[in-house]
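Researcher: Checking consistency across runs. Here is GTP cyclohydrolase FolE2 again:
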Amino acid sequence: MTLISKRNSLPDVARDEPASIALPLQWVGMCGIALPLRLADGTPLPASAEVAVDLPDPQAKGIHMSRLYLLLDAFAARSRLTPAAVHELLRQMRESHADCQSRAALLRLDFALLQQRAALVTPELAGWKSYPVTLTAQLRDTTLALRLQVRIAYSSTCPCSAALSRQALQDAFAADFAQHEAIGRDAALGWLARHASLATPHSQRSEAELSIAITGDAAQFPLLELIDTAEAALGTAVQTAVRRADEQAFALANGANLMYVEDAARRLRQALEARFAACSVRVSHFESLHAHDAVATAVTPGWQELLR
């Protein structure tokens, strides 16, 4: 018996048995699939994939998951990660389940984009940063929807804490020089050298989760452009390799970019809309003062997340 004839003789429950409960399903598929990807420039990276199709036929017992897996595997082997390649994969996934009356297909890819970032001021000093990325793509009938999501770490210094620190420093300066009608430059500089950190504003590592919509005719996914736009808007992206001069420059950047969680969300939405039109922003400040965190969201009117 040949392999093909043996395969044809094996039972196919998903095809031959009806559903015990006649109800359609929105999505059926697999998640957590290990996958090697290549970006548009050929950069390889490991990813985790989720694939699914809808199951509108209430009588269909189930889909054929191996069909989706094989299509995904061929995509990883032959294609680079571009909107056109993702669109074609979704079309093939949907067509592979025409016998189940599927009209929609979904793909989610999770991976980390590793990028080298230069130090703030020290020449030829750089380190690596990892940016978690999620690409969600959905094809329903003739409508393709692509969403690109990136998480970015940054530092945030509380404006209220900064103002209170300045007030405490001012009060201490006034108290120590209360008996002086005039204060010499050297005396003022010496006092500041000893007491300027009497009270310091609280800062915390923070995270922005950014989503933008990508058109199907785009040549590639603008990963670096999205990251660069967001980090420029914030002004305080976390650093990798630093020397003392870079650490001081980072402190100056934090002082020049005091921000509540509300400020960060508004900055990011404004910057992303100016470059990418529509976006969704969620920022989290992992508080160093409180035992809880501060969060804020900002969304372009009409924005809709992709259903999964």
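Researcher: Does this match what you'd expect to see?
Model: One thing to look at in this run: The chain has a mean pLDDT of 92.
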